[in-house]
Please model this.
Amino acid sequence: MRLWTSLAVLLCVAMSVSAESALDGRVITFDAGSWMSLYPPLALPYEGAPPEGRIRAVEESTGKDFPATIRNGQFVFTPEGAMPNTRHAYRIYVEPIDLPPVVRIEKAEAGGALNVFVEDKPVASYASGAELPRPILNLLTEIGGSRVADTLWTGYGLVNGAACWSDGQQKSGETTFGSGGAYGWIRTTKVWQNAQQTPLLDETSEYRFYAWGYEGCLFDVFIELSATYGEVQFTPVSEQGLMNIRVADSLKDRREGGLPAADAPQETGGWCDVSGAFGETKAGVTLFALPANPGHPPVWGGAASAMIAADCFGQKGGYTLKKGESLQLGFRIFVHGEATADELKGRYADFATPPKAIWAPEPETGG
Model:
């Protein structure tokens, strides 16, 4: 038994050293687009095992370092950003240092909510207990000491004729979570059901909260809807989106827009922003919709009720999902201070058409 235990320990150590040596010293090149990027989450393929310790991407021209996360075959990091049409290089360092992750997901002892912290600042809390009317994400980010948004949830006006937007129409399933350097995540499953608790469809969602080096926060929501139980017919109802955010009452100014004009002059309606002021402090919330979403761009609602509601199927009057089919949707949420329309277009471009990042060729070794 001692021999097998010793061999197992040696194997784990060897695998960790191998993962570290495969990654340490590699270089990433990042080509900025025609807009100014700001902390864009960048993903590169990486099939190796995550090494033990801290992973840093250090910009070679400035020496600034940025945390990384390796998960699901991807190396993800969030560089500071870049001016338009510039090239940047980052060298990867792996250090055997046990430090708390930048993005931390912790399960509360009382109630079981999943609390999200970015650099120790509370960002969100996901609650999905059986005693709740529906699973919901509480948004906790503050700008100037004031909470900018309240809650985020999924739903839809009518699904197979049943109201599925308000409380009571979702049953929570399995939830997993993890912390990381560049991002932490919460992955959930839900069953949408009618008033008689008959299942209508399955939802799998992943929330990715990013290391964000500026005021506010940035996170993505990736959703898969599956017609597991039969055909699903989505019928729009005014002001009831598939993705919904309740915002502070003082946020009254609404804007919609798309990508920077030089990149897509025809693009409109890819995002909706609601902004306002808390005393002398300006703040806002932007919901970005991925252009690949079915029915893009969405119909934006919620102006009369301190909300942003994205109806992804409203432009076409609904959507039908046949039994056994699934569809994927993606959204990015940006809680911010004062921001111009051009700045929001840049943040949307970082999401919809992210800058290109690739692994630089490794130098050949002599034989």
Summary: The two ends are 42 Å apart (CA to CA). The chain has a mean pLDDT of 90.
